[in-house]
Specification:
CATH architecture of chain B: Orthogonal Bundle
Order of helices and strands of chain A: HHHHHHHHHHH
CATH superfamily of the largest domain in chain A: MetI-like
CATH class of chain B: Mainly Alpha
Oligomer: heterodimer
CATH architecture of the largest domain in chain A: Orthogonal Bundle
Structural class of chain B: mainly alpha
CATH class of the largest domain in chain A: Mainly Alpha
Number of domains of chain B: 1
Largest sheet of chain B: none
Radius of gyration of chain A: 23 Å
Number of strands of chain A: 0
Chain lengths: 257, 258
């Protein structure tokens, strides 16, 4: 975000240390089952996640998410570019898309369970459905808002429609698509957790909810912590990749015009 | 998020009806699975649910949790956001917590909330508050930090101090950014309210959807799902209109007026 300030980092570290110590002390004083000491949670975390449990619970979640998100991106970008390029198409489909998009993605999960069952496929489909909308809408907006200059230039240089699409419209839309894909990724992450909480026999969502139901409290906290770490890594990784892929765009916009 | 100024999009609307009609015919002919009832049956179920109170009472529950959670999140986010945006030491101390907690998907907090609050409205409210808090917090911090230093200097020269600066300079300048964050938070809050009901509630639209799914009563289930979409759409339109009406002094809004 900002420049790295040493003093800022020092106080950040201090805050974390103070909070962790406070948690430990309060938890030991309260002796409540609901708030285990942070050290217990840490031990459980290491014990659970540096073991085959990771392969049993976390890998299926990530696998479903990656596949669902991949389809969301492919379908979203394709349809988005098409309806963004052809104005008629946009007008025709706009109400249908607005209607489908307005439905909270998680409300689709019961329908998915009915139609497909509670297997991997259902999760992939609902993830794809939920995370597709921001990608599609952004791709359409990106394609619609290609500067007229660029299209004119393409015409002057005699580019065929296909070349215009490939060399002008798609590159111009990528910054918008990337931001849609970032929103889509966080939705995909939510969808995987929820779909596993509602209908699953494994995965991280299933793991933390059943840990709560069986009063395996440190395991529950550990699972939430793992989700936090995965969420953080996904987001950071995406931003990193975005900046590499779109280096040309950021280089262009950063310069004073 | 582009607003179209054209009158009614008749082509699109007709195409929408055509799609509904096709599904209707296919469902009546039995070419779809039995899990997709004809749209007319869904519409009848929606109408009946609204009239006899089956669905309408659940809307009330959902909205009540939603409004409470969102209101609490707004108050907390603006208070903490203003503090973090104004005072650098506060920002330094708290930013790491924000960085850590923000990526936690709010739904992952549901088991924790159940543990502390049970299955009632309090549990759902706490999850909604948590989810709605972050976007508003971030946009408040940005809004406060983006205040024109000149405005603060002018205020100081005119002898405006303390709480008055907050009221007359900080909040008005940051309000546009806060309003944007609020709209994001409000959308998230509704989705999270319904999601929480779906997973673990004991009332509300989400709960109704999962009950109908388990009872194999499909038309009411689809009716409730569609209703959540309508609800989200209406709420978003209302916020959009309110934002245009009340946050009128920012450059962006001025631009729109012209």
């Amino acid at each position: 975000m900002n420049k790295v300030f040493n003093r800022g980092n020092a106080s950040a570290i201090l805050t974390v240390v103070v909070l962790l110590v406070l948690w430990e002390v309060i938890a030991r004083a309260l002796k409540s089952v609901y708030i285990p000491p942070i050290s217990t949670i840490a031990v459980t975390f290491v014990h659970e996640w540096f073991s085959p449990t990771f392969a049993q619970q976390a890998i299926p979640s990530l696998y479903r998410m990656v596949v669902g998100y991949f389809f969301a991106s492919v379908i979203g970008i394709t349809i988005g570019i098409i309806i963004g390029t052809f104005k008629r198409m946009y007008e025709l489909l706009d109400p249908v898309l607005q209607f489908l998009r307005a439905i909270p993605p998680t409300a689709i999960i019961p329908v998915g369970i009915l139609l497909i069952g509670i297997g991997d496929q259902m999760k992939m489909v609902v993830i794809a459905f939920g995370s597709m909308w921001p990608i599609l809408i952004n791709a359409a907006d990106g394609a619609r808002m290609v500067p007229a200059q660029r299209l004119d230039t393409a015409r002057i240089f005699g580019l065929t429609p296909f070349e215009t699409l490939w060399r002008v419209i798609i590159p111009s839309s990528t910054p918008m698509i990337a931001s849609g894909m970032r929103t889509g990724l966080s939705i995909a992450f939510i969808m995987i957790v929820v779909s596993e909480m509602i209908g699953s026999t494994d995965g991280l969502g299933y793991y933390i909810l059943s840990a709560q139901r069986t009063f395996a409290i440190p395991e529950m906290y550990g699972g939430i912590a793992l989700l936090a770490i995965l969420g953080y890594l996904l987001n950071t990784g995406f931003v990193w990749a975005e900046h590499r892929v779109l280096a040309w765009h950021y280089g262009q916009t950063a310069k004073p015009v | 998020m582009t607003k179209k100024r054209s009158p009614v999009n008749w082509t699109g609307f007709l195409f929408f009806l055509l799609c509904v009609g096709i599904v209707e015919v296919l469902a009546r002919l039995g070419w779809l699975t039995s899990y997709v009832p004809p749209p007319s049956a869904i519409f009848v179920a929606l109408w009946q649910g609204l009239i006899d109170g089956d669905i309408s009472s659940q809307i009330g529950n959902t909205l009540w949790v939603y409004v409470q959670g969102l209101a609490l999140a707004t108050v907390l986010a603006i208070a903490i956001g203003v503090l973090m945006g104004t005072y650098k030491p506060v920002y330094d101390a708290l930013k790491i917590i924000v960085e850590f907690l923000r990526p936690v998907p709010s739904v992952a907090m549901i088991p924790l909330a159940i543990l502390f609050f049970g299955l009632g409205t309090q549990m759902r409210m706490s999850v909604v508050t948590y989810a709605a808090f972050w976007p508003m917090l971030i946009s408040t911090i940005y809004g406060v930090r983006a205040i024109d230093p000149q405005a603060l200097d002018v205020a100081r020269n005119f002898g405006v101090a303390g709480a008055e600066v907050l009221w007359r300079v900080t909040l008005p300048s940051a309000l546009a950014s806060i309003a944007t964050g609020f709209r994001v938070s409000a959308t998230i809050a509704l989705v999270v309210t319904i999601t929480t009901e779906l997973i673990a509630g004991n009332s509300g639209i989400g709960y109704y959807i999962s009950q109908m799914e388990q009872a194999d009563r499909l038309p009411p289930m689809y009716a409730a799902i569609i209703l959540t979409g309508i609800l989200g759409y209406l709420l978003n339109s209302i916020y959009f209109a309110l934002e245009h009406r009340f946050v009128f002094w920012t450059p962006a809004a001025q631009e729109r007026v012209r």
